[in-house]
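Hi everyone, sorry if this is the wrong subforum. Our group has a chain we'd like a structural model of before ordering constructs, and none of us has done structure prediction before. Sequence below.
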Amino acid sequence: MIHTTPNGSQQQRARTAALRLAGLQSRDIEKFARDAAMGIAQELMKYGIPIPSKRFRPDVGHVQIDMIIIEEKVTTPEPGMRLQFEVKGSMGVTFNVKLLEFLDDPAGYITDLFKQLGPMRRNVQRMRTHKRAADAAIYKAITQGAANG
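Answer:
Right subforum, don't worry. Here is the predicted structure as tokens:
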């Protein structure tokens, strides 16, 4: 579950995360997270990956950035960043970046994100192709099957 709206429990989670991040205060963490997200967005823009879109708010180039709290069932809540953008083919991409994992190895984290973009795009294209073929078969069965029988 990902929480994006600020409330008291989120602020408490941010404070807890702040204690885990070498005593930084929550506003320092938020500033660091925003700066990191801006850096990631600028890298994406540098390679021309995001395209203009009306679906996402253009915070940095064509990338929408939101500060979030990532809460999974098996881990404690932690601060994160959500980057959303559109790529060619009208495909929306959402990256949820865990701040603590990002801090361990920023360059490696970004490299892994970029490596995932290609396979993600191929998988979506493959699913779209199969869906189009299935839709065409259903349409043919409905229109031609009804006329013949």
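For your construct planning: The longest strand covers residues 78-87. Strands lie at 2-3, 64-70, 78-87, 91-98.
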